Amino acid sequence: MTDQPTNTSRAPKPVKASRCTMNEIVLPNDTNGLGNLMGGRLLHMMDVCAAIAAQRHAEQVSVTASVDSVEFQSPIYMGEVVVLEGQVNRAFRTSMEIEINVWAENPRKQTMRKCNKAYYTFVAVDENGRPSKVPPSQPETDEEQQRYDGAARRRELRLLMAGRLKLQDAHNIKDLLLETLREDEAQTA
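Above: the chain's sequence. Below: its structure in token form.
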């Protein structure tokens, strides 16, 4: 099991090539009894944004494999504009991690607040619905590099939880834990 992209037959693609920004106004049919955007409706919007980012990177149809770390931090109210931003954090052999960040924009007050974040895993598929190789992703900024490195750890955690990876093979997670322990020991010494 490796966390390095294994598809070297295609040139790496920059993260910015996958970036997707979507905006949608919250209407009465989108809300619950409190006038807040329904969580399922928001998850649908996030899935669409992630699909666009994945397909831009893979240049082919890509499907949702998993959603994790969904954080609902703040409700989004009727009349506000939902702003979604997504990009591929890292591409592996056939899968990609897409990070989606969500803000609520109040057009009357001209304010924005962070409301939601999630990580989606998409798999590129061929015309027969079978997994298909994707190009490696290429981070270009420090922030993109941090997201790229974090994606490897989250992937290992997902595979561990699914029973598809043994703990001794989770090198990124072990390295992070050892580094954290060393920092803790240095602070207490």
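Strands lie at 13-14, 20-25, 62-72, 81-91, 95-106, 111-124, 137-138.
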